[in-house]
Amino acid sequence: MTQKGLLIVISGPSGCGKGTICKELRRQHPEIKVSVSATTREIRSGETDGKDYFFISKEEFERHIEEGEFLEYARIYSGNYYGTPKKYVRDTLLSGNDLILEIDIQGALQVKEKFEEGVFIFLVPPSMEELHRRLVQRGRETPELIMERFKAAYEEMNFINRYNYVVTNDKVDEAIRKIEAIIAAEKCRVIRNDALLNEILNGGV
Ligand code: 5GP
To answer: Whose CA is nearest to atom 2 of ligand 1?
Structure first.
C-alpha cells in the first residue's frame, strides 16, 4: 500500500518547547523528515548552517519570496524573516515520507490555507507561569525580547481552535507519545486509505 506522506505542522507560542519536542521526535523517529527553514536572523553558537536553518540575507530571502519559493513565510520577532522551502516539502511528501514543519502560528495558518489535509498540532505549556520561566531560563533573549515573546504568547493562544490537536508539553516523553498516537490515528483515516481499499478489493481470493 502506498500513501502520500503526512504533513505534520507543530506550532505553539514561543517557549512552549517546540524545538525540544521536534528534536526528540527526530531522534526517536529518524524516518520522519524535518524541513529546514530559511531565516535572516543571526546564527547562534552551536547552530549549523543548512542543518538548523539556512541562514541567508534579507535580500536573498526577499528574492525567494518574489520567486514564489516559500510554502509560507513570516516576519517574526525583531523583524527577522523565517520561511519554509516549498520544493523540499513537495518532494518529501510525494516520495511518501512524513514531514514535520516546526513553524510559528502565522506560518501554520498559511499552510492550512493551502494544505487542509495537513495535521495541525498546537503545543501548549502546562501554564503561562511555566512558559515565562522557560523563556527566562533558556537565556537566549534580552529581557525586552522575553517580554515581547511572552506577550505574543498570550495573543497566540487564541488561535488554538484553528488547529486539529492540542498537546501539553509538560513531560517531553508524554508529549512525544501523544504526537505518535496522533500520527498513527491520522494514517488510519479512511480518507487517506483509498489505495488500501483498492488493494483489498482487487487482491483476489
Ligand atoms: P528561533 O529564532 O528561536 O529559532 O525561532 C523563532 C520562531 O520561528 C519559532 O517560533 C519557530 O517555530 C519559528 N520558525 C522557524 N522556522 C520557521 C518557518 O520556516 N516559518 C515560520 N513561519 N516560522 C518559523
So the answer is: 41
The finding on whether 37 has its CB within 6 A of some atom of ligand 1 is yes
Would you give the distance in Å from CA 127 to the centre of its chain? 21
pLDDT in tens, 123-181: 999 999 999 999 899 887 889 989 988 998 989 999 999 999 999 999 999 999 999 99
Comparing C-alpha atoms, which of 125, 80, 132 is closest to residue 106? 80
Q: Which of 51, 76, 156 to mutate to test the pocket of ligand 1 (most atoms within 8 A of CB)?
A: 76
| Rounded to 5°, angle at Cα 72 from 68 and 77 | 120
Cβ contact 180:119 at 8 Å: no
| Side chain identity, residue 192 | R
